[in-house]
């Protein structure tokens, strides 16, 4: 029996990516999708504007901030008011390369992290990212869950307190 290797690759790269729209707000949930596949999907579904860009209220960053799923052009093409990275350092996510791309390409937005501390010196990585953001002076706000909390709530129908 032979197996078509392109089918295996498609199965390995499978991920659920969806756009949620409600009350005039839009959220892009990227799952573990690669940025090129996400852009292809947005384009194929008519979700890019006439300049080839898309803006969302919330963008869940692909694959916990893995640099294997991210390229700088994605952050220039897909923008958001709020970027979310759910990672605890496991598998080294979020990767420093992705954080560097974000520091260089995101302006005047909020980046929400689920964890400051975690595996593989996540706290040091987060502190280094915060220093880059501060040095850039690009108006980015970094947010973590409050003390003693392990999750954040972003209610787009209410004004956020920061």
Walkthrough of the structure:
The chain has helices at 5-12, 35-44, 72-77, 96-105, 122-136, and strands at 18-22, 25-29, 54-60, 78-85, 110-113, 141-143. It is α/β, with parallel strands linked by helices and 162 residues long. The chain is built from 5 helices and 6 strands; from the N terminus they run H-E-E-H-E-H-E-H-E-H-E. It has one domain: Protein-Tyrosine Phosphatase, Chain A. The radius of gyration is 16 Å and the shape is globular. The chain has a 6-stranded mixed sheet.
Going across the biggest sheet, name each strand in turn.
1-2-3-4-5-6
What would CATH call the class? Alpha Beta
Order of helices and strands: HEEHEHEHEHE
Could you say how many structural domains there are in total?
A: 1
List the helices and strands and how they pair.
Blueprint: H1 5-12, E1 18-22, E2 25-29, H2 35-44, E3 54-60, H3 72-77, E4 78-85, H4 96-105, E5 110-113, H5 122-136, E6 141-143
Short recap of the structure:
With 162 residues, this protein is α/β, with parallel strands linked by helices. It has helices spanning 5-12, 35-44, 72-77, 96-105, 122-136, and strands at residues 18-22, 25-29, 54-60, 78-85, 110-113, 141-143.
């Amino acid at each position: 029996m032979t197996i078509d290797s392109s089918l295996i690759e498609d199965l390995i790269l499978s991920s659920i990516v969806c756009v949620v729209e409600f009350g005039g707000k839009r959220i892009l949930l990227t799952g573990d999708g690669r940025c090129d596949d996400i852009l292809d999907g947005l384009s194929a579904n008519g979700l890019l504007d006439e300049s080839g860009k898309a803006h969302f209220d919330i963008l869940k960053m692909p694959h916990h901030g893995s640099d294997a799923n991210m390229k700088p052009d994605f952050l220039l093409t897909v923008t958001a008011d709020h970027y979310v990275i759910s990672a605890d350092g496991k598998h080294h996510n979020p990767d420093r390369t992705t954080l560097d791309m974000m520091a260089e390409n995101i302006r005047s937005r909020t980046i929400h992290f689920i964890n400051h501390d975690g595996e593989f010196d996540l706290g040091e990585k987060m502190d280094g990212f915060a220093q880059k953001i501060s040095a850039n002076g690009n108006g980015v706000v970094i947010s973590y869950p409050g003390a003693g909390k392990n999750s954040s709530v972003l209610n787009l129908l209410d004004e956020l307190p920061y």
